[in-house]
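FAQ: What does a ligand-bound record look like?

Like this one, built around iron/sulfur cluster:
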Amino acid sequence: MFNEIDLDKIDIDSGPPIEEPARQYYFIAKCREWVRRFCENYGRCPTASIQTFGCQMNARDSEKLLGILRQAGYDITEEESADFVLFNTCTVRDNANQRVYGRLGELKSLKKQNPAMKIALCGCMMQEPTVIEKLRASYRFVDLIFGTHNIFRFAELLCRTYEEQGMIVDIWEDTEQIVEDLPVERKYPFKSGINIMFGCNNFCSYCIVPYVRGRERSREPEDILREIRQLAAQGVAEVMLLGQNVNSYGRNLKKPINFAGLLREVEKIEGVERIRFMTSHPKDLSDELIEVMKESGKICRHLHLPLQSGSNRILERMNRRYTKEQYLALAQKIRQEIPDIAITTDIIVGFPGETMEDVEDTIDVIRQVRYDNAFTFIYSKRTGTPAAAMPDQVPEEQVREGFDRVLKVVQDTAREQVARYQGQVAKVLVEEINDHDESLLTGRMSNNTLVHFPGSPELIGRIVPVALEKCQGFYYMGRLLLETDG
Ligand code: 5AD
Ligand code: SF4
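The answer part, i.e. the structure of the complex:
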């Protein structure tokens, strides 16, 4: 266990161990020595910041990277002008890539003012060979580049930035390895993501994830449960199980267990009060899972069920492996079994060959399913995916029109859906002080809807009863009830 290791007792004068995670502990200890020298030379300790792009998976990876930096002795800051700046990138859509290039331009001038500054890049975008070529040619001031498969080696790579001059690039094509027991620095003390699997085997034709995150690999259930028990002992009340397709969890394990089975085990852990998970592929969502959700007192009343398109022709070209009818039947079954569930989704508009008629099919599903929220994306062509080579890319103007139509329907139905609980009392996990008004707290209902209400910051991390007084579109304004009122 990492918390049982005394890093100061590790002998860094002999060579590094071969096996993991001992090898990374060795390099963290070695980084500490470099950091100590930095403090002596500059009369202050080095600062580090991580900027995270993309999904929950990246957010969790950043917590692990921050854990290493903290153990190495860095002061963690949110400032981009830190001595060590790391961008954890996303490449699901091209606009995420463009933002990284834009921000790198800004970092270049910051580095001129602080020559001790080191700039590092990691994450999905780095798994693309064309990106690496571009960085090598035009962004020579970047010190370290690594990918998604060797992220567990961060301590070792960080050490190399002290020992070597010039740009260090280390990208792996794939890995079978899952390294446990590295340090983590959580953003919230009361809730945490937990990776249950890595990679994806689905190859939806528009999606770059299987190419940059590799094949699906599940963690052993014992490792997951041990991690959650530890988190619960540290005061974590809400856990979010993370995977690209949690419904296929366990398929490649020697001792088979499925996702429903894993949930049953997580449910038993004392101290865990809420269980969430992300993401569910509709084609793999089992009756057993619906049953487990229905019977559970801890699994949240929220299911994110990406639709992508409501047109059978487009679904087929997307390689989603379900039809509009199958999706609708599944949504109906879920609503019937768990009436208070909130269903959210992802939708892509402008996939190659999509007509306005296809968009109408998507809108039809939105109306029938009545999503509480839907993330609507404009199709982005990703080099190397089958869809990028499809000839009939949709003209921009038509995409815009379809997108606006979808968005309007999503907003109208979501407003109605979210408002269903107006006047009722909900249990809310208080997450933070409101961004815009310091007198308010912000928390989440079990169904993931946000609630803002007046209250004191000591309540952060607690689950409290709140009267849902007014629905404002996607969220509620509420009033805290005394525990005895609830
Ligand atoms: N273009 C637009 N949206 C995409 N997504 C994945 N790949 C693309 C792409 N090429 C969306 C899907 C997925 C979400 C995480 O991102 O809707 O569910
Ligand atoms: Fe991409 Fe499809 Fe895998 Fe999701 S299930 S990560 S959309 S390939």
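Follow-up question: can I read anything off the structure? Yes, for example: Residues 92-93, 206-207, 306, 308, 346, 348, 377, 379-380, 382 surround 5'-deoxyadenosine (ligand 1) (CB under 6 Å).
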